[in-house]
Amino acid sequence: MKWQGRRQSDNVEDRRSISGGGKAIIGGGVIGIIVLLLNVFGGETGQQIAPILEQMQGGQGQQTEAAAPLSKEDEEMGNYVRTLLAYNEDTWTKIFAEHGMTYEKPKLVLFKGAVQTACGGASSASGPFYCPGDRKVYMDLDFFEELKTKFGAKGGDFAIAYVIAHEIGHHIQTLMGTSSKMRQMQQGKSDAEANKLSVALELQADFYAGVWAHDNQKDLDVGDIDEALSAANAVGDDAIQSKMQGHVVPDSFTHGTSEQRMYWFKKGFKTGDINQGNTFEEIR
User: Which Pfam families would you find in this protein's record (predicted)?
Assistant: First the structure.
């Protein structure tokens, strides 16, 4: 993506060179994988159960250490993230205005190892996530190496762009009241039915990521969309379950299949119309 020399957002909190504060869930082993599966690319459940999972580890949390000073590469990635957030701010400010609404800009927090949020403590094993309690996106950029090496994504800078746009999609759902309505709809439902609603929420965030890419397609490089689709494919519930346990359990899906995630991102990219993203209707 053509980003050098573009506006950078002031709404990034870079905590990578300071201690995460408190204990972090150890990223390796079964517990780390559980958190990653629950929380990868958005969703609030992983943050809510993080303290419980830490207790399951027998209280063997590790005090986070002060991180090393940022390298030039780290600083460059920070600038890239600030620019991507600015792109998102510009797109959604415009789209909200076109629909008679005002866009409230979220914060984006970069961290290493562990972080405290209004949704509880989290480790980098949680993957990128959005916390509605403080309306902030949290990311440990080391996740993207895991995405490539463990989950088979193509990698590339635009995978980061896709994830940020997806998490901003969850912020949009909070602003529009979609997230709270979804939680109300889940009440009294079976686990399978509640999971379907969670899938719809995640797929809509993928759709919003596609809408964002559509609005900025003049600045995309050849291969950017392929990188986004590769990332979406890698984090489908079926792909993750197949890699981790050798079989898939559709009723347990909370984020959607690889095919669904790619479909909704592509639909957003093709249409650029937020009115075309009623995932709740189409997954019934």
Answer: Zn_peptidase
Locate all alpha helices (DSSP H) within the chain, ordered by sequence: 29-39, 45-56, 72-98, 143-149, 157-176, 178-186, 191-215, 224-234, 237-245, 258-271, 279-282
Residue 184 has which token pair?
């109300």
Classified as helix, coil or strand, 277 is coil
Specify whether the CB–CB gap between 241 and 210 falls below 8 A. no
Residues comprising the chain, all counted: 284
The owner of tokens 């979804």 is: 182
What is the pairing mode between strands 107-110 and 136-139? parallel
72-98 and 191-215 are packed helices; what angle lies between their axes, rounded to 10 degrees? Answer: 100
pLDDT tens across the length of the chain (284 residues): 999 999 999 999 999 987 554 333 333 333 344 444 445 444 444 444 444 444 444 444 444 455 568 889 999 999 999 999 999 999 999 999 999 999 999 999 999 989 999 999 988 877 899 999 999 999 998 888 887 877 777 778 899 999 999 999 999 999 999 999 999 999 999 999 999 999 999 999 999 999 999 999 999 999 999 999 998 888 887 777 876 777 788 787 888 899 999 999 999 999 999 999 999 987 66
Q: What angle do CA 37, 42, 43 make, to 5 degrees?
A: 80
Here the tokens at position 75 are 């600083």
